[in-house]
Amino acid sequence: MIEYALTFGFCAVSLALLLNLWRLLRGPSLMDRVLAVDTMVINVIALIILFGIQQRTTIFFEGALLFAMFGFISTVAYCRFILRGDVIE
Prior knowledge:
- This protein is mostly helical and 89 residues long.
- Helix content is 87%, strand content 0%.
- The protein has helices at 2-26, 30-55, 59-84.
- Helix 1 (2-26) packs antiparallel against helix 2 (30-55) and helix 2 (30-55) runs antiparallel to helix 3 (59-84).
- The radius of gyration is 15 Å and the shape is flat.
- The termini are far apart.
C-alpha cells in the first residue's frame, strides 16, 4: 500500500513542479517568478523526503533540512536585493 502512496506522491509533486516551472517562465511579474522558485524549492524538498521514505533511510531527511535552510536564505537574500538593491549592508 505504501508503494502506491509513494507513486501517487511522486506524480503529484512532479506535476506541481512542472506547473511551477511554467509559472517561472511565463510569470507576468518578478515577484511571481520569485514565488515560483520558492515553491519549486519546497517541491524539491518533498521529492527528497519521498525518496528517503522509498529508500528507507534517514540520510535524505538531513539533506532535505539543509536544502530547506538554503532555500529560505536564498529567497530572503533575493527579496532584499529586489527591494534595496544590495544584499549586505
